[in-house]
Amino acid sequence: MSRFERIFIPRLDRPLPVWMIFPVVFVALYASHFFLLRVPYYWDEAGYYIPAAWDFFRTGSLIPTTTLNNAHPPLPSIYLALWWKMSGYYPEVTREAVLLVASLGLLGVWRLAKRLVGVTAVAFWTVLLTGLYPIWFAQSSLAHADIFAAACSLWGLVYALPSRGRVPWAAALWFSAAALCKETSIVIPLTLAAVNVAEGFRQGAPARAKLWREAAWFAACVVPLAGWFTYHYAKTGFLFGNPEYLRYNAEATLTPLRILAAFGHRIVHLTMHMNLFVPVGMAFAALLLSPRPDAEGHERAALAPRALLRIFLLLLANAALFSVLGGALLTRYLLPMYPLVLLATVTTLYRRVPYWHGLALLSAAAFLIGLFINPPYGFAPEDNLEYARVVRMHQAGIAEIAKLYPGATVLTAWPMSDELTRPELGYVKQPWDVAAIDDFSAAQIARAAQEPQAYSAALVFSTKYDPASPLLRLGGEALDERYFGLHHDLPPEAIARQLGGTLVWRRDQDGMWIALIRFDYPVEARLETEGEGR
Questions:
Q1: Cα separation of 95 and 243, whole Å?
Q2: Rounded CA separation 362/420 (Å)
Q3: What pLDDT, in 10s, does the model give residues 151-199?
Q4: 8 A C-beta contact, residue 274 and residue 375
Q5: Using CA atoms, how far apart are residues 138 and 133, in angstroms rounded to an integer?
Q6: From its phi and psi, is residue 476 left (phi > 0), alpha (psi between -120 and 50) or beta?
């Protein structure tokens, strides 16, 4: 067999190489996200990541100038700007570029499962369940830094976790790339480095030296991240972003009760959220069964104790870190951890349950349901396809106000305030004048009512998915209001009444709503250039 045949034509008795699997994964992701490709940017996409990439695309500046600077590393901005340079600045180009990254992440999941367990069926179901898991599925086309960091981190684990055949320098390269996508991803290699150092003390000299060399490689990803923060400090005078961002995401979170409550939320996120309780619950039940033999009578493959310990410690370290850092309890912060949870659960089912394929299929069905049906408790719309429904509601509201009140100064809240003032986000062709408030709670509406001359129409909407009777709320409503930004938006009728306006249009869908309010006092409309439209 020639060298070409050995590389490009796999033998039938060997597993397919990753370069043949990647197109399959990407085509599956692309097809399943096809109707999301033209969706305008949403939430933190619109608030930071797209403006930061847009600034780099236009000016070449790694420091954002048209949005709040929070010191996130620049690799996602560079990547997106390169795609826009080649293919044009369109939402579908952005989403396709992110889908490529998500596909790379799933390929890493496949490779990790094959290296740790060695069973193709386990790798298949782990990749399928990861791709279908609502949080991963939604984030696969959203331009948040978390999917970039997750993909690189998973490939770093491919070279760092196996008991044999580890390639620490390759892991270090991937972990460094992850750190330059999202600074918090550094917790993964530093946790592995700490475990290696601790294990080294219990080993003989040769093994200790090897473990400590690997630890040094894993910790080396601190160097490029430190270089970025040094550059950022030299340019802005701030090391970790502007003071308000640092206060919200680090300083204001350092309260023992808040940390404990956040840790409880993180455990729920890693075991139950978005129907994750289905495979996790079945895996725990399967532990009551004895391991089954394979076709040759040998005990079925399992995760090696070394790898299982590191996976557990990675889950614990990430849950702890994001209980201390991050003002919002966003589940995408834990994005690289969900494949590890699913790998452990699928391996357990494979090892102990006779008809484990059926249980894996049941898990896939649960995740599909979670994509379209919201849980009976508050959650971020970006955790499933609710984000697309919210975007389309916002588009409908903007179209309505453009039709009825062109040139109005609009009272609204974020992210609608950005959607109306930044045409590059895909909602409007020309910026509107906006009077922005924080949300539509009673306190904020009372503040707006004191300045009726500041706006001529109001576009109000539900800023959170907030079921009337949530089934799950850790610590109670008062704790969530105090530490996690929980608030209740007034209904649109109450907002109109308190502001002295008239409700002229409203749309409700899946527990979310948007409404347009007009006011009867005289308004000076803005002049528009002839031929311009919205």
A1: 32
A2: 42
A3: 999 999 999 999 888 999 999 999 999 999 999 999 999 999 999 999 9
A4: yes
A5: 9
A6: left
